Each structure stands twice: as C-alpha cells, then as structure tokens.
Amino acid sequence: MAFVKDMLRMWAHSWKRFISIAMITLLGVAVLTGIYAGCRDAFRSTDRFFDAQGLHDVQVLSTAGLSNGDIAALRKVNGVAKVQAERSQEVTFDLDGRKSATMQEIGTNGIDQPYLQEGRMPKKAGEIAVTRKFIRDSGKRIGSRLTVTPESASSDTSDTNDTNGADGTNETNGTDEAPSFPTKLTIVGVVLDPQNLSNPDGYSAMTSFRSTATTDYTFFAPSDGVTGTLYTSATLLVKGTAAESTFDESYENTVKQVTDRIDGTVKTDRQKARRQELLGAGNKKIVDARAEADKKFADAQSQIDANRQQFNQQVDQIVDMQASAAAAGAATNGANAGAAAAAGATTPQLDETTRETMRETIIAASPELTQAKQQLDQAQSQLNEQKASTEQTLKTKENELKTSIPQVRWYVQDRQSLGGFSALKSDLDSIQSLGNAFPIVFLLVAVMMSLTAMARMVEEDRSLIGTYVGLGYGRLAVASRYLLFALLACLIGGGLGLIAGFLGIPAFLLVVLQGMYVMPGLRLEYDWLYGSLGIALFVVGVLAATIYACVQEMRQTPAALMRPKAPRAGSRILLERIRPVWNRIGFLGKVTARNIFRFKSRLIMTVGGVAGCTALIVCGLAINDTVADLGIKQYRDIYRYDLMVVSDDSDASAMRTKVASDGRVTSSLDVRIESGDLTVAGSGDGDSGKAGSSGSESIQLVAVPEKHLSDLGEMVTLQPVSSGILGTSGVGKTGSLKLDDDGVIVAQSAASALGVKAGSKVRLTNGDGVQATAKVSAVNRNLIGSDVYVSETYYAKLFDSKDAKNTKNSKSSENSEALTWNAMLAKLSGSDTSQTDYAESLEEDSSVMKAVSCAHMADSFKFDLMGAVVALIVALAGGLALVVLFTLANTNVSERVREMATLKVLGFFDREVHHYVNREMMILTVMGVILGLPLGRLVGGMLTMALNMPSLYFEVEVKPLSYVIAAVATMAFALLVQLFVNPVLDRIDPISSLKSVE
Fold first, then answer.
1. Who's near 802: CB < 8 A, 6+ residues apart?
2. From CA 225, how far away is CA 349, in angstroms rounded?
3. Is the pLDDT assigned to residue 433 strictly greater than 80?
4. Which of 309-318, 338-347, 665-674, 742-751 has the lowest mean pLDDT?
C-alpha cells in the first residue's frame, strides 16, 4: 500500500511531464486519425449515395449507337446484374447567349437516378428536372418554361449512322431512329446528377470552363414523350459491387473482370454485327430506292407511250384521209365512173415506206404536229437520261456504301471516366496522403520527448529505485511505476486525440469539402479498429522509450543506484581548440558553450525536436505557397495570351468576325479546342477502346493549324520538363520546344499524374469520342489544366479524318474537309480590369460559347481544400512545437536544480539566472530552426510532388517570407515557454536544493 501511495505521490509531483506526454499523444493521434477520418467519412457517404442512386459501374458507348441486340448481348455477360439502355439528345437554347444542354432520359431500371433536391421528379412529356447550376445561372425556378432546339447532329449516332440513302433519311435501318425529346419544357424539380457532385458555388465551378465537346447543363426528362429506338449508351451494374466501397481496389478488380469480358468477345462481335446492320440497312435503302425509281420510270414510260400512240393514231388518220382523197381524184379522171365510185368506198392500201414518208410530210407541214412530236421525243430523252443517271447514282452508292460506313467502335468505361468522380477521389486521396505522412513526424517527436522526459524522471528517482530494489521489490514492479505513468498519459491524451480526430478535424475538413462537392447524407463515424490502433501506436512508442530509460538505470546494483550519480567527466569541446574565438568569449559564454556541446543527448533531443516542428511548419507553408502561386504562374507566365474565346462550330466564323471588329486584339491564333481523354496506352493495343482505366485523365485537346505551328510559342510558353530525383522535375529553356507532326505535346499536369514522358505511347480520345494511339514528343511545363497540343496534320493522321492530310504539301485544302477552328487565343490591349470586362461582354454574344480572361483567372484562382488542410497542419505543428519546447525546458531545469541553486548562492539575481538558462534554450532553438528550415523545404517538396490531382501539378515554391514566419513562430514559442519556466526558476530554494543529496 505504501508503494502505491508513493507511486501516486510521485505521479502528482510529475504532473508537467504527464501533461507533456499526454499533449504530444493527443496531437499525434488527432493528426493520425483526423485527416483519415475526414476523408473516410467523405468516401463512405459518397459510396452510400452512389449505391442509393444506382451510379453505373460500367458504361458502354458506341460510335453507331446501340440497338436492342447490343443491349441483349450485354445482359448475357457473366457478372452483369442490371443493364439500362439510355437515350439522350443535345439541344440549344438562349440564355444570355447560346447555351447547350443534354436532354437525358431518366432510366427505368434504377441506374443513374438523379437525386431530388427540390420540387418533384418529372413524370409527363415536356416536364424536366434541372441541376442547381442551371437555376443559379438562369435565374429560373420551379414552374418556369423553356424552349429548346435540337442540334442537327446532337449525338454521335446521327453523325455516324447516316447511310446517305437515296431517300435522304437519317435512319440507321428500318426500325432504329435517333432519340428525340420534347422541345417545350417545364421545370418541375431541381436534382443532383450522381455523375457530378461538384458544388456549383465551389472551386470547380469558378476555375473550370467547357469546350465544344461538352454541354453546359443536363436536363432530366421522363420516358414519356421520348421517341427513337436507338440508344446513345448502356449503363451496367456489376454483381457484388454494392457490398464494396467504390474507392477500394477490390471494387476496381470486380468491375475490371466484367469490362474484360465485354472487351473480349462481346465487343468485337457486336461491333461487326452492328456494322452489318448498317450495311444491310444501306443496301435495303438502295434496293428500295431502285424499285421505287423503276416504278416511277415505268409509269412515266407508259404515259409517254400512251401519248405517242395517240399522236401516231392522229397522224395515221390524216395519212388515210389524204390517201383516200388521192385515190378518189384518180378515179374521177378515169373513164369508168362506176369504178370511181367503187374506189371511193375503200381506203387504198399503202406500203410502210410510203406511209412513213407521208407521216413525215404531214408532221413537217403542221407546226402543231411538229411541236407535239418534239415534246414526245424530248420527254423520252429526259426519261432515258434520268434512268441512266439514277442507275449510275445507285451503282455509286453501292460501291461507296462500305467505305461511307466506318467501323463501329465500342468504348467500355468505368467510373474513373466520370470527371466528377475522379476529381473527388483524387482530391480525397491526395489529402489522405498528407494525413498518412505527417503522423510519422509526430510519432518520432513523441518518442524523442518521451525518452527525454521519462529518462529524467527515472534518473531523479534513482536513489529511491535503489532502495526499493534493495528492499526486495522486483525490477518489473519498480519499473511499473513509470510504465503505468506513461501508459496513463498516453491513454488520456490518446482518448482526447480520438475526440479531436473523429469529431473536430473531420468536421472542419467536411465543411471545406462541402463547399466543393455536394455530398448528401454526410455524417461523422467512428472507426474502432483504426482509433485503437492509433492509440496503440503511440502507446508502444512511448512505452518503448520508457522501458529503455528504466533498463538503462536498473541494470546497476542497488548500492550504485542509492549513491548519487557521478558528475560527467570534464572534457574539452571543439570550440575551445579554436583559440582566437574561445579567448574572446566571456565566462558565462564559455559555460553556455560547454553546457550545450558536452551534453550531447540533450543537444540532439532539443535540436531534433525543434527541427522537426519547424520542418512541419515550413512544410505546411510550402504547400500553401505552391498552391497560392499556381494561378499566377499558369495564367501569367505559361499562358502568354490574354483571352481564349470558344464557339460552336457553326458560329466559329461569326465569333472571329465579332472579336476582330471590336479592335481589342493585338495578335491572335486560331485553334480547335476539344474536350477528350488521355489514357496510358496498353501493350501495343492502340484501339482497345477502353478509356476507363485508372490511368486516365481528362484533357483539353488543342489542334493548331499547320501554317501557324511556330505561332503557338507566342501564345503559350513552351518549356520541356524532365523527371528528376525524388519526384522533382527539371525545366528546359523557354522556346526550346516546338510542335511538329511527329507527336503531341502533353501538359506536365497530366504527364505527372499518369507517369508519361517523352517517347511514351498514349491513347487520345477526341471530342467525337474517336480514339487513337499517339506518340508523346515532349512534356510541356503546365500547372493547371491538362492541355495536349497537336498539329493539324498529326490530328488528321490520328483520327482518320480527311482533314488536311495533305495540307503540308499543298497550298490549299479545297479538296478536303478542313478542320473548323472553333477557338481563338488572343493578346489584348488594355488593363487587366478592361480585359476581364471585355471577356464578360463577349459571353453575352450569341456566337460565343465561352470567353476566358487569363487576368481574371490569375486573380480568382483558389484552392480552398488545400488551404484548409495547410492551415490545419500549421496549427497542429505549432502546437507540437510549443509542447516540445515546454517539455525540453522543464527537463532542462529539473536536471540542473543544484546548478541553479549554486548560482543563487553565488549572488546571481533572478533575472541573471533566467538569462543564464534561457540563453542555452534559445541557442538550441536557433540551431533547431536552422536545421529545420531546409529539412522542411525537402519534406514539403516531396509531399507536394506526391499530390497528384486531376489537371493540377504542384511546382514546389517556398517564399522567403514563409521561412521567416516559420523561424519567428518557433522562436515566439520558445519565448512563450520562458514565461512558464521563469517562475519555476524563481521557486528554487538554494538551501533545500543543495541539501537534497545528503
């Protein structure tokens, strides 16, 4: 009982050490669990939402649309739980200029169901549900009406399925028709699209812009009123995926098994079958057109023949009359009147030659008959020409049919191809990677501080330990006094850390996340296993340090332990050997130098602890500086143009005329901009058609006219980059990179995320969904957005177009269908404000789809999520620095109580004692800061380079002010600690302290 009471008394006396260990554990557990818990809660809530709304696991697209046969084939694939055929149509409408939208049919099989936020779901034809982004941009509300106009080529199917049959229809066969939606619409609800959880008021809405291949909005309509039997896509749910997290590798493996089966025989067979359907439909149209033409020609020929027969009968009547009159005249002049009368009673017989001669004579003599004969001959000639022309046309159609219908291509995609899904996953993964790295530093510091505190605690009780061991107590029993002390401190600190880690930090992160993404049903959850392991990790580390300290002392005999520990033998330090310096140092300076360098363990612990805390602060500030400079570097340095204007293909000419007429442009470059995907190409399979792998990135494909390739460098800074050590990159000389016809130039942001470098093979998907394998000629410095630059000639080569394949060797491309330059990069005159205002005014023009001012983008670019995480890290690092300095200062004082008492006896005033002790701590703090600043730059650079986010590359930047802030903050913490330490020094009683050994 006395042993226990003494143990409790000892614990109460060491309450400062207890608080230090508990606080370090609290901070470490909070960092370890907090960022993880916040990301995990976001992962789980979105996974539940995806399951509830039936977000598809696999989506199948086709360049020729999907038929009922395709849907039936997909249902037979092993592992497919549900298949939903979907129809959509692109439409346009007027909203401060021309805007586009995708009319999406709400599926009836429970897949990709929109989440209702306001109003009700549409049920009748003409009713639609819209997204909150449309409500915000348009100012409309539930009950508002809207009229849309279908685009002439609103879907991929209308472009690829037109067989150009003789009847001129666009149907792909006798039964399949492209989808068509009502055009007079009424808004009845506001919904959230499960394929895109981006908050319309958040970061993504502010910094992103759309190109011509995507629409501005999505409208959801019921099946009622939708016509057409051709489907634009098929969405699938895979068996067993609902029980797995969509963000886990096991989910990806399950989905991959099904996509591999589809990519195997199903895709190949159905591509061939679909093309045969199109060929059969085309042949049928030609046969039907020939039959219809033959019928029309036969009717026309019958009419001509009937008219000619009538004409011939009329002429023959005249011939007979003339022949009869001639015969009657001859008989009148004869001798026999009876013979004349007999001759007049019958028509004389004429041979065919004579009759034909008379016909021609009669026709020639009559203008009316001549005109009638000419009309009949002309009609017959025209009919013969029409027959020959039609037959020639049909034969040409038969010959061109196979080449006019391209090979059908299927694209099998998983959730990674959804921009909203991949952005959310990448954001959370990157933040979680920070949460996995920083606790390591906290754990190391906790072990170091615990070793220092517990070693001093055991050393203070060495005589008591010797007494207990001499009285027969076991060494384990005596060590349990300190082990239980450390364990209790860890458990209390860890428990408080779990509260902060699973409630405080996640709540903070989720508030920021909800500003970027809409996540219905978000809630905080506790993970017993992870929380227990988090505490256990710090318990093991602290107890290991305590055990080491106990073993170091208790391996001595009880008699040795009961005697005071012999003072450390005097020795020279290196500075003493530098006589010119040493001789100029005062007495107290020499004492301070000896105290610092003779006690190496204290030196290492103090410098190491301070360096670690300073490094964490620098690391957080480095990430903040890097993110803060992204917009300026991208839109001021890399993009040298001031304005980018994008239009629809049909409005491209009007857009350029409008911009030119305003007189603001000093120089410009016409380009074509499309939205697409870049995927790391498979092993030699350049046409696998699978764009949904984990190595996929959304890109902006920029095609440059062949004659203006050299002008690209005037609008965009072209600098080649190469991979360096520890994830760093080297940047080449400006202007040393040129765009040519041998490959594409890939942005550094996309190349870093996918591991692409010069010479790599990648699969590109253009705005029409066509895929091709391309060679990467170079990687260009780029921080925001994933631009891929391609020449006009190489674009045509990649995507099998007729566009300017020979433009390099010809003066004009009149014989080929040239690319439509739907965008313009321009340099403007005027201030940044005037450029921003001009871009906003352009967006009001009907010919402009989007106008982006680089000045506005540079000023408005923000990354709220990363800024919040950085603020959290810096705050926690500052707290750790404060605890570390407090622990070290108190340990330093407890070790030197007799020394302080001696100084007081010698006549030192309290302020002089303060200065004597604090000077050593300040010098050690300065040494830790000097070591921590470059260490923080190194660690911050490594962590920043590891953050792979869609369309973002973090080029490490640490401003001098950040170093100053980190150093000043650490020194301020040291000064703050002095305010707590000085009263302890004042309370030292010289008499009792010097008698304590006796």
1. 796, 816, 817
2. 76
3. no
4. 338-347
pLDDT of residue 204: 47
pLDDT at 727: 46
CA 385, 391, 394, 398 dihedral sign is: negative
DSSP 8-state secondary structure symbol assigned to residue 723:
E
| 60 closest CA partner among 456, 412, 550, 510 | 412
For residue 711, the Cα-to-chain-centroid distance in whole angstroms is 29
Distance CA 269, CA 246 (A): 30
**According to the model, what pLDDT value does residue 59 have?**
92
Tokens in use for 269? 């067979």
What are the distances in angstroms from CA 781 to CA 716, 723, 746, 866, 954?
A: 10, 12, 9, 22, 11
The residues, ordered by sequence, that sit 6+ positions from 761 with a Cβ below 8 Å of its Cβ are: 681, 686, 773, 774, 775, 776
Is residue 731 within a helix (H) or strand (E), and if so which, with residue range?
Answer: strand 729-731
Q: Which of 79, 55, 40, 85 is nearest to 67 (CA)?
A: 85
Q: How many CB atoms lie within 10 A of CB 138?
A: 17
What's the whole-number mean pLDDT along residues 290-302? 84
Containing H/E element for 100?
strand 98-105
Q: Are 822 and 647 in contact (CB under 8 A)?
A: yes
Structure tokens of 485? 């002390």
Residue 278 in this model has a pLDDT that exceeds 90: no
Burial 841-872 (b: 16+ CB within 10 A, else e): ebeebbbbbbbbbbbbbbbebbbebbebbbeb
CB 634 within 8 A of CB 785: yes
| Confidence grade of residue 171 (pLDDT, cut at 50, 70, 90) | very low
The whole-number pLDDT of residue 214 equals 52
CA–CA separation, 233 vs 219, rounded Å? 16
Per-residue CA distances from 470 to 1, 463, 856, 997 (Å): 18, 10, 79, 19
Smallest Cα–Cα separation from 696: which of 780, 773, 753, 766?
Answer: 753
Pick from 531, 430, 976, 407: nearest CA to 752: 430
Angle between helices 419-460 and 910-945 (to 10 degrees): 150
What residues have CB less than 8 Å from 201, skipping those under 6 apart? Answer: 136, 515
